[in-house]
Amino acid sequence: MTYDVIIIGAGAGGGVAANVLTAAGKRVLLLERGISQTFAETGRDPLRNQRMSLYGHNAGPNADHPRVVEQADGSSRVVLPWQDGYQGNAATVGGGTLVYGGQAWRYHPNDFRMRSLYGQPAGSSLEDWPIGYDDLAPHYERIEQELGVCGDAQAMTHLPAYARSYPMPPLALTRQGTLHRRGATQLGWHTFPVPLALNSVPYADRPACIRCEWCVGFACPVDAKNGSHNTFIPRAVASGKCNLVTGAMVEHIVTKGGHATGVVYFDQDNQRVTAEAEVIVVAAGAVETARLLLHSGFESGQLGRNLQGHVYISANGLFDESLYDGLGPGVSTATARWSHGNDGIIGGGMLADDFIVLPVIFWKRDLPPHVPRWGLAAKHWMRDNYSRTAGLKGPIQDIPSPEARVTLDPSVKDRWGIPVARLSGATHPESIRTAQFLHAKAVEWLRASGAREVWGEPPAAPYLSGGQHQAGTCRMGHDPRLSVVDASCKVHGTDNVYIADGSVHVTNGGFNPFLTIMANAHRTAEGITQRW
Amino acid sequence: MPLPSHLITTLSAVADRIVPGEEGTPGASAAGADTAVQCLLDTDLVSLRDDYVLFLTQLDIESQVAFGTSFAALDTEKQDMLLSTFQSSAFFRLLVEHVQEQFWASPLGSALAGFGVDR
Fold first, then answer.
1. Nearest C-alpha neighbor of B86 from the set B50, B64, B56, B45
2. Segments of A319-462 assigned E as strands
């Protein structure tokens, strides 16, 4: 089989790349290790989803994809995708976008120049991106229009003026959003609607969001949540130029010198298949992309390093009145007041109210520490207070560490005989200081909104923060000694291998990353078509 | 392999002290949380099955020694008293979480919290 382009991974970045490349007339093989899933197949299991996966996932990966986690004392353990430390993301057509909450953030212009603004703390690998906000702005705009994002562009005053508004207005405000906007106003903080990749009104021949309570962690029952699975990938396939193959586990990229000739993968029947192409685009996520490149023999002192995601802060408040209105997805109001410019702090982060939290997730993660874990008092607390709580959350700018990394485990292999990813290290300690700063702001906001009790502690010590926002393992840069891909996202030392996922992020912004992944994949794919 | 029937009875009684039923609101067994935990002991929690057997057996023995009858036959006050002696047991805390997560994940538990019913 010979194609123009082989794309590995049908998630956020891979889907966008497939659409751009097929629109330019390229014949594309799009390989995805997961399967294509409907809403019914994904289900609504509160204990098995991408928000809480105690006993498995609803959107992959399955137990065929273990990893090894190296612990601080040097020991290691094998983990399955739903166990602590795995740093997982969904493995299905659409990747995380099938089941995400869809917060469609542009990064702040300062997110691209962290080293210039803050220096490089000892032991960190804080750097500037080789591109800036202005380079991505037109691609953000294209994605917002083509994917379908609702929001209020004029309210995004922390960003340069948008050339074009979001294609849909924001969702109607929730009770908790009303409360938090009032609190922020009292503090003098500017807030705005959280931009969301869902249809607030009918758009692109699909209906408007029905505002169900489930949303994040699950597929959409009416297909009003916009991901690559229901936008870019079907458009690519409809072009007749994209062959989407699911259940395809790529073993390695075939290279001769600095030139790739194709890939070898195992199909759904576990048959080894060789496919050839003129260009390879890897978009398997920051862990699997690094693993694949390492297993394919790519050499770089930086490959696999700087694994990051987001250190998150979370605080909850108890209010006098019921805030539960059942209007999903729930997240509605944010501030970028603390994203940058904080005295003595590196970076900062966005703060926003939360998605509707399922009762079991609230029980597992958000219960105040004074509530007993069993008996009538525990039950009564949940009955009386679940609907009167509201949380604030925020991703802080991770300060990357070169020691937070993906390597190949020397002994553990998956069922195809491929060495699994070995994860080690932690974010830089400065990330924790920033998180503690942002947490204090969340507490301040909750109190201003009227919370009579606030709980939740910021992280106390560095940890590995990849997770669903994983990034950084193939960072972008001009100097091959300090980066893995160049500014066009072509792997240094190759002439036809590109990366189109969060791996290339030098830093990961103080915002959810998918829109930046898509915008940069769009830029990368357009760049390929312009040069070839 | 299912738990022996007398231990299933004990497990249900324990579950109903972890999430007690009351007039008008369900407890753990009414919401199916005890049955869900039993099912997990054959699947995802199979590695803990022996620990469950050991704990539930020990609980019944303690009940016989202290009160001359099985745990399930005790009144709720004595059941709570006996379970309180296991407060510091790591396994008991784990069992508590297994029951609670099944309860709050169930339709009846979710509705009790107010999820999906307050539009």
1. B56
2. 333-335, 351-353, 389-395, 405-413, 419-424, 453-455
HSE of A448, CA atoms in CB hemisphere, 13 A: 18
Domain boundaries, chain B: 5-20+28-113
Residue type, A458: P
Which residues contact residue A403 at a Cβ distance below 8 angstroms, ignoring those fewer than 6 apart? A305, A424, A425, A426
- Cis before A329? omega within 30: yes
Pick A359's closest partner by Cβ from B18, B93, B110: B110
List of chain B residues whose C-beta atoms are within 8 Å of the C-beta of residue A213: 115-116
Q: Which residue of A has its CA nearest to B17?
A: A375
Q: Do B101 and A47 touch (CB under 8 A)?
A: yes
Alpha carbon A204 to its chain's center: 24
User: What integer best gives the mean pLDDT of chain A?
Assistant: 97
DSSP chain B: -PPPHHHHHHHHHHHHHHS--BTTB--TTTTTHHHHHHHHTTTTTGGGHHHHHHHHHHHHHHHHHHHSS-GGGS-HHHHHHHHHTTTT-HHHHHHHHHHHHHHHHSHHHHHHHTTTS--
From CA A503, how far away is CA A493, in angstroms rounded?
17
Name the interface residues of B facing A (CB cutoff 8 Å).
17-20, 22, 25, 40, 43-44, 80, 83, 93, 96-97, 99-102, 104-105, 109-110, 112-119
- Asked if B101 and A55 come within 8 Å (Cβ–Cβ), the reply is no
Q: Please calculate the CA angle A100-A514-A387 and round it to the nearest 5 degrees.
A: 35
Predicted TM-score of the model (pTM): 0.97
Domains of chain A by range and CATH?
2-79+87-531 (3.50.50.60)
pLDDT digits (tens, 9 = 90+) for B68-109: 999 999 999 999 999 999 999 999 999 999 999 999 999 999
pLDDT digits (tens, 9 = 90+) for A423-453: 999 999 999 999 999 999 999 999 999 999 9
Does B118 score more than 80 pLDDT? no
Q: What's the mean pLDDT in A323-335?
A: 96
Q: Mind listing the pLDDT tens digit for each residue in A283-328?
A: 999 999 999 999 999 988 999 999 999 999 999 999 999 999 999 9
Is the ipTM reported for this complex over the cut 0.95?
A: yes
